[in-house]
Amino acid sequence: AQSVAQPEDQVNVAEGNPLTVKCTYSVSGNPYLFWYVQYPNRGLQFLLKYITGDNLVKGSYGFEAEFNKSQTSFHLKKPSALVSDSALYFCAVRDNAGNNRKLIWGLGTSLAVNP
Amino acid sequence: NAGVTQTPKFQVLKTGQSMTLQCAQDMNHNSMYWYRQDPGMGLRLIYYSASEGTTDKGEVPNGYNVSRLNKREFSLRLESAAPSQTSVYFCASSEALGQYSNQPQHFGDGTRLSIL
Questions:
Q1: CA proximity to A53, closest of B95, B102, B15, B105
Q2: How far apart are CA A113 and CA B107, in angstroms?
Q3: What is the pLDDT of residues A15-38, one digit of tens each?
Q4: CB contact (8 A) between residue A43 and residue B100
Q5: Residue among A32, A49, A108 whose CB faces B42 most closely
């Protein structure tokens, strides 16, 4: 069965330091992978996606994510964190093969960037 | 450009009351979705509409009904509210035509619903 995991409920980083928010997945076919961000009292906003091609995907607000097929991971990264990056981050995966191709959401990781 | 608009933003109901949550998108998107977000549970799909005129159950449809009124509007109805339906409800839309797509979803800012 397909699944997605965000192993850290919370990540704390200092402003200016690099940040990583982790996501691992399990699918039977090839994955479609997505990252979304949710600011307080707002809806989710799409950051980036991996469908095929280059393993390093660049997205909005300076974020990027690296698809690693052997480790079944799709970690979100940013070279230099901003206080305004503090938010809830969701990873989502869809299996592009098999009978179950529904979009599966992770439970979210709360990112706190400290000044 | 408003994107996805949800009304109301907040609502308090008594157990057994009914209400309809409204959602409209102005992006000419084909697919629309209703989710609920609860602490520790992430996002759970209630119902979706892969195209105008079609609706399908998601992960947690019990206690809810939906109507895809036209291409722009997708409403969610609670016929007899229960405390377990206290949640934040999000509507989303996507260019995707059909259930399975690599197109991203665009979300409204949610309706915060409390049922006493």
A1: B102
A2: 24
A3: 999 999 999 999 888 899 999 999
A4: no
A5: A108
Q: Is pLDDT larger for residue B6 or for residue A100?
A: B6
A chain contacts of residue B100, beta-carbon cutoff 8 Å = 94, 96, 101
Please indicate whether, in this complex, the C-beta atoms of A44 and B43 are within 8 angstroms of each other. Answer: yes
Q: What is the DSSP string of A21-61?
A: E--EEE-SSPEEEEEEEE-TTS-EEEEEEE-SS-SEEE-GG
Band the pLDDT of B96: cuts 50, 70, 90.
Answer: confident
Token pair 């079944």: residue: A72
The pLDDT tens digits for B37-59 are 998 888 999 999 988 889 999 99
Q: Compute the nearest-CA separation of A42 from chain B (Å).
A: 5
Check residue A98 and give its pLDDT.
Answer: 65
